[in-house]
Specification:
Mean pLDDT: 84
CATH architecture of the largest domain: 3-Layer(aba) Sandwich
CATH topology of the largest domain: Glutaredoxin
Number of strands: 7
Oligomer: single chain
Radius of gyration: 23 Å
Shape: elongated
Structural class: alpha/beta
Number of helices: 5
Number of domains: 2
Length: about 190
Amino acid sequence: MTLNISRQNLQLIGAGLLIGVGIGVLFIFGVFGDGLSNWGKNDLEGIPPQVPELGSSAPTFELISLSGEQIRLEQYKGQAVLINFWATWCGPCRLEMPLLQEYQAEYDSEMVVLAVNVGESPQDVQGFVDEMGLDLTVLLDETNSVEGLYQVRGLPSTFFIRKDGIIQFLHIGMLTEGQLIGYLDEIGVTE
């Protein structure tokens, strides 16, 4: 089989490809233009964007709790902190929450779990908290600014922060009880 394409048809194909690429570029910058211009920025005024690294200080933030209280990470200086990023639609988050609740209740004088809900309405979050019978400090990250600040790549994600404010571990995915016990032991929360 021989392909017989005239010069005129080749020019038309080339022009079509150029037009297609041009439209694609315009679409990407038109649809994602604001997102691309804000790449690496966060919505927290006065706080430079930081990429949290293991062994570095946990980036500071302030969010409203489900109960309406302003919560700042600095409030928990001297305590071990677990920052758990989650959502109501996330199956592994749903399975993990009772474990976090249990260990928060058991070690409340040594650590705090900050359950940061990512991008959902207070009504949806409250329904989930009521259904699960949770008594954790639930924070609302409706604009996903803290999720961006912490460079969260999957839910659930849990940052384990030592009493001195240093990020010791990041666990992406659902925690098992054995994993949780191991991490807590390493950050100074003992049985």
